[in-house]
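Write out this protein's structure.
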Amino acid sequence: MLQPKKTKYRKYQKGRVGGIESNQNGLRFGSYGLQAVTASFITAKQIETVRRTLSRQFKNTNNKRVNKIWIRIFPDIGVSRKPLEVRMGKGKGSPEFWMARFSAGQILFEVDGVAKDLALKAFSLASHKLPFRIRLTERNFV
């Protein structure tokens, strides 16, 4: 799973998410993208699950080398938890997992080299793995 090699601090505050993304709301690499409709968090395990779902859907196509998946987010925030039934106080707790924050409108995943119907099917299956709303975006060819 994804996690940073080194961080400046061992424990972070989760913070709040909100607003609409204006910088990362367009496709940069691929033809089709998975765009977040709402601002939320995504864990490293969820990113890996979506990546595996997309790669399994594109594995059965004829041209395997043309298919490409880009992950546009990285889980760089460590989330700490205290064990169950521990009394209050005595510090924050050890880091449990990694997550990423994103705003509404940000592109999370991009794919290229696949047909539109296959990308739509793969993103539909991937959306069932995520706890927030997403939509499919496509590049406007001129």
